[in-house]
Request: fold
Amino acid sequence: MKAEETTDTHTHVVIFPCPVQGHVSTMLKLAQLLSLHRFHITFITTDCIHHRLHRFGDIQALLQTHPTLQFKTFPDGLPHNHPRSGESLVDLFHSINLHAKPHIKHIVLSAKPTLTCFIGDGVFGALTVDVANEVSIPIIHFRTISASCFWTYFCVPKLFQSNQLPIRGDEDMDRVITCIPGMENVFRCRDLPSFCRGTESDIVFPMNSMAFETRETLRARALILNTFEDLEGSVLSQIRLHFPRVFTIGPLHAQLNSRQDSNPETTPSTNCVWEVDRSCVTWLDSQPLKSVIYVSFGSIATVTREKLLEIWYGLVKSKKRFLWVVRHDMDGGDRVPAELEEGTKERGFIVGWAPQEEVLAHKAVGGFLTHSGWNSTLESLAAGVPMICWPAFGDQHVNSRFVSEVCKVGLDMKDVACDRDIVERMVNDLMGHRREEFLNSAEALALLANQSVSPAGSSYSHLDHLMHYIKSLGQDII
Reply:
């Protein structure tokens, strides 16, 4: 661990993420960063997530490296065999909102030393604010989505007031949205969060609920975002008109790497709730420079067997090398056409889960076919890897448009038929015909991302300001 100027043996922060991989991993990185400065951290999560961290990550390695970090857990109220992914994710959110409050209050009230503040996942905006207020502890919200998506959620009521919503059928999908301040004329209806469509079966929160939870952050003392000023500055200036205290501390994975010495016992995989297959790194080591497209659709999204096969055919037909993460809960069957097996043996490698940060940073990786979750997007931007975006739900539609239209570092494949010919064409555009164009843009953004987490960079400074602010909140505790 690097020696830090700021050490603190009294400040105690409780952190509560939404209990899914992307949220837990991101907020656990913040916990590690605060622990590096000797803040006491109580990290609250569900029994299910904690069990998976023990099984597939390495909590003991984290605790040895971060002795001021501790874990507390509570039951999420769902049966042990509940999938907690895909369309069933809605059950998890409802159950947390129904059952979590007394458990979190008990953990908070029994915490020693006395808590300084509560950093809660803003996706549970009302729950976390209510808990903090009931136990008289200052609340800070962390949103694991992009600033652009947070701002879009916040502006949903304005979109209705200006008659930009609702969306009026498929013929309305290319209508341009003109009244999101700072992002005028960037988004079409099809680029808005999936819940704005009002017809999808995979909506986790209904529109009014998500807009409500986002606006609950107005009741918090501050807002933390996993982004950086050079990436989303115009939107952040609009957000600060409503939320004066905003800390942009991302990319968090790069921030953590910049502040701690490399330690093989605390790799990003220690935060993982899926079993990592590191054989793919060995395979990548034998591939030419920038020759591999990495394919992963995250930890939650499900893919039908029909779509999976179309993507597979497209990858094989492209004649490009590919590394593909196919989770064991999403492949839908065992019978694979012979031509796909043969094509994969020649140029492909498939694993159940990969160490994504390490993969994206590998010299052999030249592109990323992604679901456009914000963590994946940021990790790809920081590594200088262009993207093909195939969003599924939630914030992913916003992110895919941001990547293709604002950052110009990839292609947006939303709302097109999942067809092998389209996949083949997109892969060949990204990895062949337009390779230099996208690589140049991606490398320029990667430079800005990594500068932001270097000493004197904006995100580095914002994390220092956040730590000073948290310490000052201790004066509010009676």
User: Anything to note?
Assistant: Residues 367 and 430 are 7 Å apart (CA to CA).
